[in-house]
Design brief:
Blueprint lengths: L1 H24 L6 E5 L6 H16 L5 E5 L6 H8 L7 E5 L2 H8 L11 E16 L8 H10 L5 E4 L5 H13 L4 E4 L3 H9 L5 E5 H9 L4 E5 L27 E9 L4 H14 L3 H9 L3 E2 L7 H22 L5
Parallel strand pairs: 1-2, 1-3, 5-6, 5-7
Antiparallel strand pairs: 3-9, 4-7, 4-8, 4-9, 4-10
Helix pairs in contact: 1-9, 2-9, 2-10, 4-11, 6-11
Family: Belongs to the UPF0065 (bug) family.
Keywords: Signal
Protein name: Tripartite tricarboxylate transporter substrate-binding protein
């Protein structure tokens, strides 16, 4: 019995030594893969590629590969990372969908709360409420009046169930207590195309997708979804929904970084430390600001605060999604 106990103790010590050695060597020149659960070229993909470059600098120049594993509203890519070896070489970068898929999908092959290590929040992307070029309303007050006088006749587009624009639209309808017809598309591009053509009336989408259209005066901007006006030249004169009468209305599409559950604590610390350095990289900040995004510099860069924030977002979006019956399965 004593011999068995001694062997068990030695095995445990060897395992601990191996983990410690791995953590000290990490990443050790081995490539890191960041899984993005969306197609290449979209807003989340752009954030991932910019962050990969900033992280590379803070991780001794290690190669960081972005793997676009799209499909099923981000759940395929999320599941891929949840099942990955927890060694720090496979990470997940995703957006607010981490907090909404648990409500949108009744059955998931992973648990958002227990299958991931939360590493830190990356950015906040504001949203804009925009209208077709020839829409009758000139400001948010007139828009609200117009919607109320046309119950069920106003078409509100979105980029698909579970998309950022879908979530923003649900919250907007809930706050306005408005009866609008929701029109889902397979992506933001076709939704904006139909908005420009007048097939739909309104769209609420990320600044990363709408700023260029607003700059070119191809759409009618009504409001931004932050509590303060934005500093971006093309958006600085657009009022907030809060000042337009929807008090405390605020919604941003944030991005966060995750690792598989069970990744060694020393590796997680190295990754979180590298993330904090990356988020202060002037080049990364400039790129994000160019997309209309705000790089996170508050306590949400800490793993515990990141997870706490996501849980609060689940509680926030859940009732709205359930009330609308907006399920993806």
């Amino acid at each position: 019995m004593k011999k068995l106990l001694a062997l068990t103790t030695i095995a445990a010590a060897m395992a601990t030594t191996a983990v410690t050695s791995h953590a000290q060597d990490y990443p050790g020149g081995k490539p890191i893969t960041i899984v993005v659960p969306f197609a290449a070229g979209g807003p989340t993909d752009r954030v991932a590629r910019d962050l990969a470059e900033a992280l590379r600098k803070s991780l001794d120049g290690v190669s960081i590969v972005v793997d676009n594993t799209a499909g099923a509203g981000s759940t395929i890519g999320n599941a891929k990372v949840a099942r990955a070896k927890p060694d720090g070489y496979t990470l997940l970068l995703t957006h607010v969908g981490m907090a909404t898929t648990p409500v949108l999908y009744r059955k998931l092959s992973y648990n958002y709360e227990t299958d991931f290590e939360y590493l830190g929040l990356i950015n906040d992307v504001p949203m804009t409420v925009i209208g077709k070029p020839n829409i009758e309303a000139r400001n948010m007050k007139e828009l609200r009046d117009w919607i109320s006088k046309n119950p069920g006749k106003v078409n509100l587009g979105n980029a698909g169930i579970g998309s950022a624009s879908h979530l923003c639209g649900l919250l907007l309808q809930s706050e306005l207590k408005a009866d609008m017809t929701t029109v889902p598309y397979k992506g933001t591009a076709p939704a904006i195309a139909d908005l420009l053509g007048g097939q739909i009336d309104l769209l609420c989408d990320q600044t990363t997708n709408t700023t260029s259209q607003i700059e070119a005066k191809k759409v009618k901007p009504f409001a931004v979804t932050t509590l303060k006006r934005l500093n971006t030249p093309a958006l600085k004169d657009i009022p907030t929904l809060d000042e337009s009468g929807l008090k405390n209305f605020q919604v941003t599409i944030w991005h966060g970084l995750y690792a598989p559950k069970g990744t060694p604590a020393p590796v997680l610390k190295k990754l979180n430390d590298a993330l904090k350095v990356a988020l202060k990289d002037p080049e990364f900040i400039a790129k994000e600001e160019g997309l209309g995004a705000v790089v996170v510099q508050d306590k949400r860069v800490e793993p515990a605060e990141h997870k706490k924030f996501v849980m609060s977002e689940v509680a926030r979006f859940g009732p709205v999604i359930k009330a609308a019956g907006a399920y993806a399965d």
